[in-house]
Amino acid sequence: MKTIKSLIILIALSVGITSCSDNNESPMPVTENPLEAYNLTSSFEANGHMLELYSEKEVLTTGYNELYLQIKDLSTGEYIPNATISWNPVMHMTQMSHSCPKSEISATEEKTVYKGFVVFQMASNANEYWELNLEYSFGGTTYTISETIEVNAPADGKKTVNVFMGADDARYVLAMMPLTPEVAINDLSAVLFKMESMMSFQPIENYTIKLDPRMPGMGNHSSPNNEDLIYDATAGNYAGKLSLTMTGYWKINLQLLNANDEILKGESVTEENESSSLYFEIEF
Amino acid sequence: MKSNYSFRVRSACIKYPLVVLGLCLMLIFQSKLQAQEPIEFQTLDSILTIDLKEVIVISSFKRSIEHKSQPNPLSTLDEYLESSKKISMVKRGAYAWDPMLNDMTSERLSITIDGMRIFGACTDKMDPITSYVDVSNLSDVQVKSGQQGAQHGNVIGGAIDMRLEKSNFKPLGWTAAVETGYETNNTSQIVGGELNYSDENFYLDTDIIYRKAENYTAGGGEEVAFSQYEKYNLSANAGYKVSDDQKLLASFIFDEARDVGYPALPMDVSLARAFIGSLSWVQSNFIGNLENWESKLYANTITHIMDDSQRPDVPIRMDMPGWSDTYGFYSQTELSFDNHRFMGKIDGFYNRSLAEMTMYPNNPNEQEMFMLTWPDVRTLNTGLYLEDKINLSDGILKLATRLAYQSFHVADDFGLNSLRIFYPDMDQRQTRTLKSVSAHYHKQFKKWHVNGGVAYGDRAPSVSEGFGFYLFNSFDNHDYIGNPNLKNEKALETRIKVTLPLDNLELGLEGNYFHTRDYIIGEIDPTLNEMTIGADGVKVYTNLKHANLYNVSMDMEYKFTSELNWSGRVSYHRGIDHNGRNLPFISPVDYRSQLSYAHGSFSGSVTLSGAMEQTNFSPTFGEDRTSAYTLLSLSLGKTFSFGGNTLYVKAGVENLFDTYYSTYSDWNNIPRMGRNFFMTLSYAIN
Lengths: 284, 686
Prior knowledge:
The structure holds two protein chains of two kinds.
Chain A: H1 2-25, E1 39-46, E2 49-55, E3 60-61, E4 63-73, E5 84-92, E6 97-98, E7 106-107, E8 114-120, E9 129-138, E10 141-149, E11 151-152, E12 161-165, E13 171-176, E14 185-197, E15 200-203, E16 208-215, E17 221-222, E18 227-232, E19 237-243, E20 249-257, E21 263-265, E22 278-283
Parallel strand pairs in A: 3-11
Antiparallel strand pairs in A: 1-2, 2-4, 4-8, 5-6, 5-9, 7-8, 9-10, 12-13, 13-14, 14-15, 14-19, 16-17, 16-18, 16-20, 18-19, 20-21, 20-22
Chain B: H1 2-15, H2 20-33, H3 41-47, E1 54-57, H4 77-82, E2 87-90, E3 98-101, E4 109-113, E5 116-117, E6 138-145, E7 158-164, E8 173-183, E9 188-198, E10 202-213, E11 229-243, E12 246-260, E13 268-285, E14 291-307, E15 317-337, E16 340-360, E17 369-392, E18 395-410, H5 413-420, E19 429-445, E20 448-459, H6 463-467, E21 471-473, E22 478-481, E23 489-501, E24 505-524, E25 537-559, E26 564-577, E27 590-599, E28 602-611, E29 629-642, E30 645-654, E31 676-685
Parallel strand pairs in B: 4-7, 22-25
Antiparallel strand pairs in B: 1-6, 2-3, 4-5, 6-7, 8-9, 8-31, 9-10, 10-11, 11-12, 12-13, 13-14, 14-15, 15-16, 16-17, 17-18, 18-19, 19-20, 20-23, 21-22, 23-24, 24-25, 25-26, 26-27, 27-28, 28-29, 29-30, 30-31
């Protein structure tokens, strides 16, 4: 272990040295693609444009997906700035169709890059598929495009999105935002939407999401100094603190409380009740 | 006389600012003593000793026969220590007992090997420093109670210094010895040997010892599973006289134990290994009038691998390796003039303690669970120790002080972030100043010797107390969390000893009292959830307002004839906190009595030892009432001579009546060894 550690440190150091010296000798060239660090998950050609969809993850998965868009003008090869884009992913199931929670698409500091998030409740399968409808306009013209996209179940099988009926008979979607878990107090964020109709999901503010992280493999060991998720109006999501005392598999048991502190979903973890019906999973 | 003295002081002040403080102290007393005639120091010193240390002789100065002082010569060092007056041992099995002095364990003591600081690498105290040496390489163990041990470090309970055996330039030429022993109870086999060369300019001592024991059997025949162990220890000491006055010394110890069972714990040790080395420079004359200058540089590294691979049934498999590396130095010198003997010492050490825990989930598809139980804590301690022994007309006064600076640095970010789950505002680094002052006085009234002292000292938290992360204590069945915000623990201590040496009889009565403020102990935090499966809860180290400890002991020795000797002692201990609650690991009344006979080449002994029922126990620490017990042991020895060589045969039986018992300091009440026959053979080649 010690040897491995020192080896890692050595490698890290040497990488550090080389990258530093690279920087000094020739400054990093301006990358042509500002999204080089992300993964191109899909690209669609229509209307003489190429629409490119990027994600932090390698593929689109169920749960929260932060997505970046670029529109390339195929005639000039230039990326188009200052466009207005709206989207609507639709799941075509065998019996019905529905949409999913999503944000608006906004411009980023990079003028040709647009950003938003989508929470997919389910994965595509042989008979059911997601269709991404995009409407974008620039230079006074509006274009539309519809393409099938592939949404995968997460490779680790861990649950990061909950679709449920609350005690108030409303349907909710609760999704965990991306987290790189560490043995520390982590910043945990989530988004909460109410399903108004098959095609409309509204973000919900000022509810509370209580959390109780547990390790089922360790006799349901819990951790101290967790903070419930409360609504952060600036960020537009729910934020709290998640303490993880060791690596491994953690079940983040949740309870959703409305603005009147009435429990809409989830149960307290007790000796008799090992877990809540509302939860996220983390493994690291 | 006086002017001469003052001149010396002045020049010393200018040249050596380090000793100024001590000299000032001396001046204060000098003024008081001017009217008195100075007393020859050496003479008085040989009669009266102010240092009330206990010396546990491991190997006798007579080279030919080693380890003669103990009824069972090749018993473990732990058994030597346990049979001493002041030390008691916490036992988690047959191996690596944890020494206690004045009912205090390692975090309140300084345990050193030839003055070297070493820290165990086990978060569960399964490797006390005493487990990394053996009787083969020690000459004696010096036990100093309370602040009398401040020479070695910042202590509350005292200091235990294990001194290595050295030929020390005695012109003996080549000498060798072979020792072997066997014990029936746990089929323990011991083989040891030494080969030494010594002349007036050079010596080299080497020794080796190997022990292997199977499970032992408790009184009544019950086998104690997982009490086996195997260990070997190699050591070498060398000295070279650079000039008549200058010596260069080196020492090296390698110790390795494998497959050590801890029946009282849920885990065992697959490997405990130590490398311990030092280099010293000794010079009898130093600068000016300073003398006996001794400086040492040392380093040691310990690897300790705890696992549960041998246990058939555990809730979860885990590995808990730990590492502890220490680098240190000290330099000390003495100054004698008139009726003063002054000693000054600067010392320092740097320790790195790291321990991990990896748990393997029962569901093989889940990730391993990993945590740092000691987050790579770097401890730096530098100190200055000064003492002055002043000969008064009717006694000796000893004044001593230590001032030290200690810093902790949590070097591993993973570990720091782990602890910040509990202490979000915790600093990565912290520093503490540690102090000790003491005054001891020895006076003789006719035949009575009265020794008394008062002292004050403090200590910083140990690595576990300050930075431990979910350390499971199987005794009280709680996980322990360290607390970096702990205050230093401070103790005010008084002690008195009265001895009456008569012709054939010597009587002694000794008592000490520790009033400890900010006593560090784990307290249950009901808001925290245990980590260890099956644990009852979590304790966090906290400072109690105060705790009081009393120790009283009486001992006697009676010589019937020059051959027949009877010794005995009885001791009483009590420890309570500010609410009158009992402290853990406080001994009940215990006693030991020995009748020994030595005539010519023949020796024999009968030992009776035992304890009364433990009524003042600490249920919150998992203790329960421990029953009284009495043990009887016998030994017989005979020396044979073959030409110049000597063969020493010793045999005996311990726990003759096969009593089933466990003591107050047996972890989780594991029973002690039942009847045990032993036999040792020592052959010395001169």
